[in-house]
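Sat 14:20. Reprocessing the chain from the morning session after the first attempt stalled halfway. Input below, unchanged.
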Amino acid sequence: MKKILITLVVIMMVVLFTFPSSLIAEEIQNNSTDNGSPPTTILSGSSENNNSGDTTTTGTSVQDETTTTTETTVQDDTTTTETTVQDDTTTTETTVQDETTTTTVVDNDENESNDDDATTTTTSETDGDENNNEDETTTTTELTDTTPPVITLNGEAVINIFVGSVFTDPGASAADDNDESVAVETTGTVNTNLAGTYSLNYNASDASGNAAQTVTRTVNVIPNATIYTDKPDYLPSEFVVVTGSGWVPGETVKLEFAETLFDLVTQQTTTYFAIANAEGNIFDMQYMIDARHLGASFILTATGQTSGMTASTEFKDGLCSGKFKVVDTDNNPISGANVLIDYYYYTDSYETDINGYTSNIYLYYGWNYDYEVTKSGYLKSSGYYSPPNNNWVKTITLERESGSIKIKKEIKDSSLRGVAFEFTLSSPGQTDRTASITINSGDEGNTTVSDLPFGTWTVTEAQGDYICESPSDYDRDVTLSKNNKNETVEFENKAIPTSGSITIKKEIKDSSLRGVAFEFTLSSPGQTDRTASITINSGDEGNTTVSDLPFGTWTVTEAQGGYICESPSDYDTEVTLSADNDKETVKFKNDRISNTGSITIVKEIKDSSLRGVPFEFTLSSPGQTDRTASIIINSGYEGSTKVTGLPYSTWTVTEAQGDYICESPSDYDREE
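Finished this time. Tokens:
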């Protein structure tokens, strides 16, 4: 076999230089018809026919898909070599009679200049023997890819953003000599809400497992730029101390002080510059407050000349800020109260919020301001206030334009315990209010009705199964005012009675009756008689009360004894007890028994001419001394006289006749 291969190489070299050009052209023509496209390159060709009758033919072409066939015949042995190039694979097959050698080369990389291309070469040799058995030997050589991909950042390697801004990662890409596409993996996060330095790492590996060198992007989250002054208010000759942070280190920051003055003509804007240090902080104290700034306000605006960032703050001159706080007498905040501040030409008003505070009020240190605080339903409060320092708070306490009424209830019957006594409080133009008292033990109870606007209120007790003894008309009027904010009313009640009482009062007109037991009987139809007794041991009066007398008419009769009942003269009197009149009083007046009496003579004239005339009378009784009396009527038509000390007997009263006529009695006398 080896001899044949050597011979084949020699023959191919001879044929190459002797093969006719016409055969090459014909072979090209034949190849072009296989794929419909003309060949791009002709390498060489020759043909030779020697005296021995051996023929050698060689042809070579290169095309998108090229097959080159070389056929050599020496003595009757024919050697055929066929080479096919398609895409990245080259296959060469050589056949000498029945022995075949095949070599295949696979190029896995389009980059022809890369020495580390992964290349696989396979050689197979088949030798047929007399029994047509084939021996096949295969040898494989593999070249390994060891070149890693290369990562390239999209955008800048260091990115600066501000706190609160939106950050989008630009990402990165990877390139590899063998793989068309290599994925890039990113690790790390950026918190845009927290200032700091963050790292994003990018990694990639190709299909052969070659890892690229890690590439890192740095993201700086920078705090927002700030600007501050050391005080909110300044006095003349004080410097404004300015500080700030969050600026780009090393950048110049422009500071603009814009004034707002009462005198608009002289107000201006003043500019200074400060340099941010390595930490992004600035400091400045070049701006001074002067006398013309009294009462002015300022806006300080800072602008970073590199970053373009801005920040601003406000301050004032000679003013201090504070708030009024308005509360009630229980220290509860009052919302919606109006606070009026007045100082000569300066007048302004503020309203309190839900917590009782006004908004910030700017006033001059040490100046006295008039204030007036008002709120519907409350008494006005006014006075003077001088701000002592910054962040002052002035607390004002408002009293309500209202008062309270305390209702006290007293019951006189235990049966009324547990009863709900209802009350209505009414006032012109106001909403009625109600209250209730229930006495569960004891005899008294009370309740208080508050927040009653000033004015006159009528407290009325609802009528029920009881009697209101006081007030008897079931209502009381009270007036509430600033000087009389709290009032008390009292109601006394008793149960509706079914019985009453009679009080018997006794009066004596003679001390000899002291120690005498005066007896009384109380009687009523259908009722059991009741008795009572009065003994007066000292003084001239005494009394007793008979209770639990069923409603009805009762006759109180005094028992007769050794004395005279002057009143009532018939020794008895009647009284009627009812729900509306369950208590009555009767009086009895007594005198000792006497042996003499008196006669009263009454004279009537029917003619005015009888005025001044002395009418003479004689009183006579058997066995008694005559008595005389006289009546003179100076005006009118009647007169009288009383003759006392007349012993018990029949007495005749006779008028003396004169220049007149006695019409009655016609006989000029009467007996008594």
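Helices lie at 2-18, 21-35.
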